[in-house]
Structures are given as structure tokens and as C-alpha cells.
TrEMBL record:
PANTHER family reported in the protein's UniProt record: CHEMOTAXIS PROTEIN METHYLTRANSFERASE (PTHR24422:SF19)
Highest taxon listed in the record's lineage: Bacteria
Binding site for S-adenosyl-L-methionine: 83, 85, 89, 127, 153, 211-212, 228-229
Cited InterPro entries: Bact_Chemotaxis_MeTrfase, Chemotaxis_MeTrfase_CheR, CheR_C, CheR_MeTrfase, CheR_N, CheR_N_sf, SAM-dependent_MTases_sf
Biological function: Methylation of the membrane-bound methyl-accepting chemotaxis proteins (MCP) to form gamma-glutamyl methyl ester residues in MCP.
Keyword Methyltransferase assigned: yes
Name listed for the protein in its UniProt record: Chemotaxis protein methyltransferase
Amino acid sequence: MMTELTSSDREFIFSDEHFARIRRFVTVHTGIVLPDIKKNMVYGRLSKHIRKQFNGNFDDFCDAVENGDSEVQDILVNAITTNLTAFFRERHHFDFLSNTVLPELYKKNHLTKRIRIWSAGCSTGEEAYSLAICLYEFFKDKPDWDVRVLATDLDANVLQAAKSGVYDIERLNQLELKEKKMWFKRGTGDRQNLIKVKTDIQTKVAFKRLNLLHQWPMNGPFDVVFCRNVIIYFDKETQAVLFKRFAEIMRPGGYLFIGHSETLFNVNDQFTPLGKTIYQLPS
């Protein structure tokens, strides 16, 4: 049975005021809302940085954040953002993409021969590469088509990992053997427990750092947007703003995929629900 960490159990003093200062910055700059129950999580994720760079002093850390130290602000943002993902997570979304959306876009976009998918909140890249695999499999005999995935995240550390395309082989446990052989290369020697996404798939993905609350430098339009397990960390007002912006940057008839515990109900009415957290803009 787990017990809550108390102030006497902590190595450093982490007061309610420290948590409030951190929470204010995180909400303003990322849109993520940290409830009181996240106080121990925040302490746990930051304590190693406080020990190494601030001699155990949360006051100095909070001062650096509020005084605009970009390096310290990055430490905070990277520590707070949650990065749980997997290849083909919620497989039914990728089945729908391959079996319904891509055939439809193949007919619809036959003049431009262009398809753009956005993985918003891509974490360590598994979702983005899963999307690229779907594109690769559908268009591998259609080389004149320009099909690409934009993958963005707020966390600079996970983006660096994603760009490498290298993962522990255990991350592929849920895939069939033939899928592993088709889409990944296994390391040799002391790297035999690592796999790398094949180049033909990796080159279809562009990874960029992006704060969803800030200005979006890309123009779109996107045919498909995956924004899964991201909005649960935002309040309803922020969610409403984000979904409105998604609608504005998507092509008419475009598809939006969100996480299994998320909903647009009472948040946005621009999209038509298709079931299984899949939505579509009117054409």
C-alpha cells in the first residue's frame, strides 16, 4: 500500500507556496493544470535538478523560473509533461486511418497528390512513426504522392529521442514478428537490444518543438490531426480554444483523433463524432 509523501519525508523543503509558484507558471505557459494531488509528483520530478543545480533550494529554482531563465524553464516544462505512448496505441484509430481515411483521401486529393497529418503532442515519436507506417504501406507503390507527418511536442528531451528513431526492443512487444521485420532494423553486438525505424519511414516525419498555446508557424491545411491524451491536462476553456484552432488549420472533411478518455462534448461543436473518439469536420 502506497502512502502519501509528507514534508518530513522529503530531502528538501517544498512548501505549498513553492508548488503554487510552479503551478502558476506551468498553467500560464503550457495550459496544463496541476491539481493538489500532483504536488508529490512535481517534487519527485524536480528534486534531482534542485539537488544538482540549486543546492536543494526550491526558492532559488522558482526565482529562476519567474525571472525568465529559459534553461530552467525548459527543465520545469520537460519535467512536468507526461510522456506515455506506444507504437499503434489504440490500434483501432490506425485501422480506421488505413482502411477508411487514406482510401478516401487518395480519391479526394488526386489532383494535388498531397496528404498532411499532424501528431500534436507526439512525445517520444511512437505515434508519429505509426502514422508514417500507415502512409508508407498505403502509398509505397505510389511514389508520386507527397505524404508526410508533422510531429510536435513541448518537451525538447523527448523530441530529441524521437528524432533518433531508436527504441528498446521491448517497445515492440505488442507488434507481430512480420511487422517488426518490415518496419524496423535491429541493432547488433552491444546494441542488439535496440531497434531503429527504417529510413523510408523515418524520412516521412518532421519533428518540431511547439507549444500548443503559442502561435503555430505552420499553415496547413492538415487532412488528419492526432491529438490524443493531451487535452486532459487542460481546462475546458483552453480545450475549447485549441479545438477551434485545430478546425481552422484543417481541410474541410478532415479527421480529428483524440484520446480514449477525452471528449468534445460541451467543448466544441464544429466536429461531427464518428465514434471511438474519432471526429470529422463538415466537408
